[in-house]
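Issue: copy button drops trailing tokens. Both records pasted manually instead:
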Amino acid sequence: MRLYLIIALAILAMAVSASAQTVMVQSGRYADFRQLLAREAPTDSATVAMTLRLPDEARDRYPAVVIVHTIAGYQEANEGWHADQFRKAGFATLTYESPTARSMLQGASTGSRGEPWATAVAEAYSALRLLAGNPRIDASRIAIVGFSFGGEVAHLAAFERLRAALVAGQNRFAAHVSYYPAGVYGVAAEPAAYTSAPILMLLGEKDDNLPVAKAEQYLTYARSAGSAPPIDVSIYPAAYHAWTVPSLGAARFYPQYPSTRKCPYLLLGPSRPALLISGREAPMDPNVMQTCLKDGQGYTMAYGEAARARSIRETMDFLVKVLRP
């Protein structure tokens, strides 16, 4: 009887290890986007714990989704819940705790040169490389889904110059889903500014961290340059920032959190970042950024049950269409 119990426990342990595997990954840290785009060596590196989970359905190789959490860190009720939905649909999932998000939450400045966002994008591409090298994963069908901080990372990961600086060859994310991004960065309009992978951007009608009007101004600028970005936008009525997070409850203003809501987009291009002011590129002005960050301190967050239900459906439809699990 004891032998049978030992065998049963061993089988259970193998099943658990097969469905959830945590790997410690070294990811480069960059001072700013200039360093990254110049393809200089990282300043140093950070160790990131990344957890891969496979769907219950057995198959040779799986499409996969990298999930990047909000600045508050991984939450089972938000990122974990979405990961579970993706696995039920046949996608492997990779989640990780971002050291960059943790440093930002503890008060690190976003600055006007790129830090710490360059490092955050590097973390996402470390996740892509990890999955692409796994024989259980179809390297051509890896998507990235992010929330708030993670939504900004998911959008940045679609910039071709950043992709080319971080991965060899033509490796890329096959799809990007950006839930209520921070709205800090755009890409300077030029041919092939984006990787060409489709992007789904999900915005809240009442989001005062990234007002819809600000996002639409950027998209109008990007489309008018003759190289339309591959971005589809869904706007959720009455939804505030972070509508997918159940623990937030009713709408509440959080004055302690920094926001770029009153700032122009920072445009990444072949030279130093520019500003998007009144729909046009303008030279970088640190004084503009300092003033708008001061004036825009704080924003509102609230859970939206209807918005979460609709957004997971739209996200799933998008991923199934693009990745075809």
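Record 2 (pasted manually too):
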Amino acid sequence: MTWPAPLTLTGSHSTLIPLSQDHHDDLVEATKDGELWKLWYTSVPTPEEMRAEIDRRLDLQNRNAMLPFAVIATASGKAVGMTTYMNIDSVHRRVEIGSTWYRKSVQRTALNTECKRLLLTHAFESLNCIAVEFRTHFFNQQSRRAIERLGAKLDGVLRNHQTAANGTLRDTCVYSIIASEWPVVRAHLCWLLDTD
């Protein structure tokens, strides 16, 4: 049995649906908004690499290593980014929410907060996870602030954790939310969405 199984998660601002090549054109358009692939400390596909990136994520899904979603904005009905459950550990009921990116025009909006609330709610309340992890590049200050805004706590920094596409060594900041923290984090996310 696949854990977690593909599903659709629906909110007011966004819907997370299983990723497919049907989302290719919207995602190409999305990545052009802000030329996201040019940020040296992230890993966002170029328009030309989008089809291969979708295939890569779907291959990882077939190996039960990732559950990828297309993020659909309610306002436009279009895919505006991607997110995943990854580093899936079914034995210890842990997942990482990662490999996430959004077109520039929807960054720092209620859409991202809602997507995280949908994913976290499913992880803690349906999958019975004991912890949900987030990882980001040490120099990705925007991502670090967004993760901290959710209520995740810094577990530590994995120094020289990976080699980036430009040849530099990546220090990875590892954050998590544990099951006992989820009720407070959920209340905080609901408050953020009510005030956004």
